[in-house]
Each structure stands twice: as C-alpha cells, then as structure tokens.
Write a structure and sequence with these properties.
By secondary structure, the chain is mainly alpha-helical. Helices cover about 50% and strands about 0% of the residues.
Length: about 120
C-alpha cells in the first residue's frame, strides 16, 4: 500500500517520521530560479522546431536574468513582497508568447538564427 500526503510544512514531523515515511520538504527559496528555466526549455511550451536552440536559450536567459534580479534586489523598491521564482515564471510565460508562432505545424526558423548554433 502506498500513501501520499502533501502538507505545507513539516513543523510537527519528527526526524523518525521523515525517514520512515520518506517525506521530503524543499522550500522554493532553497531551490532557486535556475531549475525553472531548465524545466521551461523541456516543457511543451518550448517549440520542438527550436530543439537545437534550447541550450542557447537557457544560457542567455540565465545570463540576462541573473544581473536583472541582482539589480532589482539592490536598487528597486516594491509595494509588496515578491517571489523571485514567480517573477522568473512570469518572465518565461511572457517569453512563451513570442515562441508561439514556432509551435505551428509548418513553422520555420529564420536563416539568420542558424549562426547562433554552437557546433
């Protein structure tokens, strides 16, 4: 028999309970935002026709988001508490709208982009 429980936190779980039940709790802040990008490029939202561009997309997204988030943390004020993971997810949702034309069946990659590929 397999039983699965999903809880918000493990406040009342002892180490014995965790080890016997195989519970794992990982806060989003511990995970960071880089795995969000990695999972985006393997999701159905990333067009299969751009398969060869996945490493480039992931690398450049990390390259630009890291300083942007660092800058925002250091110099910006926000009217409410924000989650950087949610901010990255929102960015990727917005980016996916630009990738939608490549999800069509007869979509083609412009020739100019072939120079980006790393051989």
């Amino acid at each position: 028999m397999t039983m699965m429980f999903e809880v918000e936190d493990l406040i009342y779980a002892s180490p014995a309970t965790v080890s016997r039940c195989g519970m794992v709790y990982l806060e989003a802040i511990q995970l960071g935002w880089i795995p969000i990008i990695s999972s985006f490029v393997i999701s159905p939202k990333f067009p299969p026709i751009l398969e060869s561009y996945r490493p480039i997309f992931e690398k450049h997204t990390r390259y630009f988001l890291d300083p942007a988030i660092t800058f925002a943390k250091a110099t910006c004020t926000f009217p409410m508490v924000i989650s950087w993971n949610s901010t990255v997810e929102t960015f990727l949702e917005n980016m996916s709208t630009f990738l939608e034309p490549y999800l069509e069946e007869n979509a083609k990659v412009p020739k100019d982009y072939e120079d980006l590929l790393i051989n």
